[in-house]
């Protein structure tokens, strides 16, 4: 990803997973990253403020041992401030817990 180009999820492994999975992501700019996890009914089942990262490729481990087997949507977001507008850049991936 080119500098300044947002956030992208590169890979999740293992997927499907049992208990834990690693999420690899790329940032175009430095800053804090937040991960939310949703079940297929749209309920948020996990929220993690992962801290600040520099631009580049990073990974984090998600511990899902407390959740039932199923399919989950992992959403990473990073705050963006452009001129007078503020918002979030988002990246999502589907993960399957076995």
Mean pLDDT: 80
| Number of helical stretches of at least 4 residues | 0
Strand content: over 45%
Taking all Cα atoms into account, the compactness measure Rg is: 14 Å
Query: In sequence order, what are the helices and strands, one letter per element?
Result: EEEEEEE
What's the β-strand tally?
7
The CA-CA distance between the termini, in Å, is 31 Å
- Main beta sheet: strand number and arrangement? 4 strands, antiparallel
Low-pLDDT segments: none
Global outline: globular
What share of residues is helical? under 10%
Strand order of the largest sheet: 4-3-6-7
Q: What structural category arises from helix and sheet content?
A: mainly beta
Structure notes:
The protein is built from no helices and 7 strands. The chain has 98 residues and is mostly beta strands. The strands form 2 sheets. The protein has a 4-stranded antiparallel beta sheet, with no helix packed on it. The protein has a 3-stranded antiparallel beta sheet with strand order 1-2-5, with no helix packed on it. A hairpin with a 6-residue loop joins strand 1 (7-13) and strand 2 (20-27). The chain is globular. It starts with 6 loop residues before the first strand and ends with a strand. The mean pLDDT is 80.
């Amino acid at each position: 990803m080119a500098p300044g180009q947002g956030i992208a999820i590169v890979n999740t492994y293992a997927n499907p997973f049992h208990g834990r999975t690693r999420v690899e992501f790329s940032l175009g700019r430095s800053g804090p990253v937040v991960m939310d996890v949703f079940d297929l009914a749209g309920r948020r089942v996990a929220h993690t403020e992962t801290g600040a990262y520099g631009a580049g490729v990073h990974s984090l481990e998600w511990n899902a041992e407390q959740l039932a087997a199923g399919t989950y949507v992992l959403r990473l977001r990073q705050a963006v401030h452009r001129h007078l507008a503020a918002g979030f850049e988002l990246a999502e991936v589907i993960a399957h817990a076995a």
